[in-house]
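Request: Give me one sample?
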Amino acid sequence: MIFEKYHALGNDYLVYNPSSTNHEFSCEETVRICHRNFGLGSDGILVGPLPSDKAEFGLRILNPDGSEAEKSGNGLRIFARYLRDSELVSDQPFTVDTLGGVVTCEVAANKSIISVEMGKVSFHSDIIPISVGDTPREVLNEKIELSDISFNYYGATIGNPHCVIPLDEVTESTAKKYGAELENHPNFPNRTNVQFLQVINRNRIRIEIWERGAGYTLASGSSSSAAGAVARKMDACDQEITVEMPGGEILLSIDDEFNVLMKGPATRVAQMNLDPECLC
């Protein structure tokens, strides 16, 4: 079973093209393949290209815990780079269908930058979704109680759910300490991605990320998009935003309607052949 491995600022995915040997990955198989010690090691599996009646290419995104993600900005950049490396696309825009909606991608002529029109961010509880009782609303700067602390948070979705917590300073230890509890908080019926957000200036933010189904993560495109949109909603940032993450930087352009254009790299790592014994 052949996989192509890429990373996007340290967030790594295995790309599996089902055109050669179509295989439906069970939850247990996905967990084993993504495991850093017992498998190939990755933050998820990208299954595609798949047929789609909505876009030129279909894509499934499998998390390392075996669940399926609606959308991944880094995953989309990696998939776009894979399509270009496989000569399935040129340097012209093309569309990809995900569970979180159709996006438009474009790979630069030298493959150094991949642009993804991520879609429109919503802050509304019904769309994210967030359980807020009998009054559906935009979830903006509301209190969320944890076992030993409370935070003020913003809810957001760009096709997948996000919990954004603005802080004066963000650290890896904070993300690792509270990420899992926030991911599984009862406010979020589908669980959630978590971003701890520090605004540096009107064109730069820093985030630490806990990714639903994956845990602490060095970089995330959808997390960057959600956190950047929240910074704009707070009127703390302008349209052009650079997002600092432990793995590197992503560039965002977020208009007044909260439509997000993301630009960043994706790097090819290797072709990997999984031995069937790994799944036994």
Remarks:
- The chain is about 15% helix and 40% strand.
- Helices lie at 27-34, 73-85, 172-183, 221-233.
